[in-house]
Amino acid sequence: MHSDERRIPRTVTLVAALAIALAGCAANSSGSGAPSPAAPLSAPQIAAIVAAPDRSAADRANDMRRKPEQLLAFIGVRPGLAALDVSAAGGYTTELLARAIGPGGIVYGQSRPPVASAAAPAPSAAEGGTSAASAPAVRPPPRRTSPEQLAERSSNLGANHDAAAPIVAVVRPFESPVPPERADRGLDLVTLMFNYHDLGWMGVDRAQLNAAVFRALKPGGLYVVADHAGRPGTGISEAGTLHRIEEAFLRGEVEAAGFRFVEGASFLRNPNDPRDKNTPEPPQPKDDFVLKFVKPR
After folding, report:
1. Nearest CA to 81 among 54, 61, 102?
2. Tens of each residue's pLDDT in the chain, 297 residues
3. Where are the domains of the chain?
4. CATH number for the 38-114+144-294 domain, one of 3.40.1160.10, 3.30.365.10, 3.40.50.300, 3.40.50.150?
């Protein structure tokens, strides 16, 4: 065999080994040994989630004011995340996250244990612009608990064979909202939608809540908070009457826990809202803000 013929296999082998090594470096550019995270969902993927035919009529009606496509895109939801929806209530956002994250992840929906406490202060103006005196005295139907509603959502997703993450109801105090198995860098995403202001009149230790969320998130994890905007200087003082909170006040409390502010979204803003009533006059959407924070790496 000629010397050139003996070198060819050896050269090919070396080139192949180099290609494999380079591919391995590209697949693990962080050097951590962990696989690269999935890409955020595309606009068509998000649109398909929102348009899913088995979503409830109530959720579809809620879409008009909550704009879920813009919300999921703003968050940058990716498949396979471990997420917590704080103050999940009926689970509107919880289900959207489950559908977006898919079966490779998990979504927890938190609600606090039942407590015997005073009701929220009466709004200065009733929702819808009607006064309390003129409103008919109608006894509302018994209200289902948040875990009951989340269980129904999870059951429906399974019955309809949706490729969704499991929804796990978590009943824990707001000051410690994370399940123990996820309490120390076990989450990728935490959301708190339109209820941060309620923590004021409820007497929740918000610094403790934000510290717990900070600890539970992995480095680079996101904390997304949305709420109804209050006027400058009002802080959280109008939480129980106008159901509003000053944006700068909320941002300051979250940043005090160690979070870094990333950006705010404009898709729910309404600059024409005077922000001086529970329901704006003339009737119009509230001025709502959505803020994204990150736990520094």
Report:
1. 102
2. 443 333 434 433 333 333 333 333 433 433 444 455 789 999 999 999 999 999 999 999 999 999 999 999 999 999 999 999 999 999 999 999 999 999 999 999 999 998 765 555 654 433 333 333 333 445 555 689 999 999 999 999 999 999 999 999 999 999 999 999 999 999 999 999 999 999 999 999 999 999 999 999 999 999 999 999 999 999 999 999 999 999 999 999 999 999 999 999 999 999 999 999 999 999 999 999 999 999 999
3. 1-36, 38-114+144-294
4. 3.40.50.150
Residue 128 is classified by DSSP as G
pTM, two decimal places = 0.82
All residues at 6 or more sequence positions from 184 whose CB lies less than 8 Å from its CB, including other chains: 215, 216
Q: Answer for the pair 109, 94: CB distance below 8 angstroms, yes or no.
A: yes
